[in-house]
Design a protein that fits this description.
Blueprint lengths: L18 H4 L26 H7 L2 H5 L7 H21 L4 H77 L7
Helix pairs in contact: 4-5
Length: about 180
């Protein structure tokens, strides 16, 4: 077996007689010697723009419109950019400035509409979770009520049977003529 490579950290006395008062814990208890904060071991690689660009495939670009909220946000961005760029061009701005306004409006409005849509989806998802919880709770309550009703009905039947047995016992003659 390999020897323990960790350095033991001895408490540094600070003039206090309490041991726990003089102990200073390490910066991160999960950090391994010679390692990183990554609990799986090794170091996390530095990711740059080139690595991100390499990870995008043609299929990702072909199916981007199927992602939630993307289609609506892009359409609203196109409409907004077309509207603002067209108005700028009609009002006499140079084509380069009108184009810049159109692209900027497209980017900003697409981003805003996408974020609003994502927020609405999150709120709807939370509402659905609450609805499912309420339905489950009501189902459990209904089952308990049904069990209680069945138990009450069973007790009433037993009580009725006892009363009937008691009545028959009282009516039974204790003497016979023949």
């Amino acid at each position: 077996m390999a020897a323990d490579t960790r350095k033991e950290q001895e408490p540094k006395p600070t003039g206090s007689s309490k041991t726990y008062a003089s102990f200073t814990p390490p910066e991160n208890a999960n950090a391994l010697p010679g390692g990183s904060l990554n609990t799986a071991g090794g170091r996390t690689p530095n990711v740059g723009v080139a690595e991100i660009a390499k990870s995008i495939t043609l299929e990702d670009l072909q199916t981007v419109h199927t992602k939630p909220c993307v289609r609506d946000s892009l359409l609203m961005g196109i409409l907004g950019g077309f509207g603002v760029g067209g108005v700028r061009a009609i009002l006499g701005a140079p084509m380069s400035k009108a184009s810049n306004w159109a692209v900027g409006t497209f980017c900003i409005s697409s981003f805003i509409v996408y974020e609003i849509c994502q927020y609405k989806r999150m709120v709807e998802k939370e509402g659905m979770k609450r609805a499912v919880e309420i339905i489950d709770r009501k189902k459990i309550e209904r089952e308990k009520m049904k069990e209680a009703r069945e138990k009450r009905r069973q007790e009433e039947m037993e009580a009725g049977a006892r009363i009937e047995d008691e009545r028959q016992r009282k009516e039974k003659q204790w003497w016979k003529v023949w």
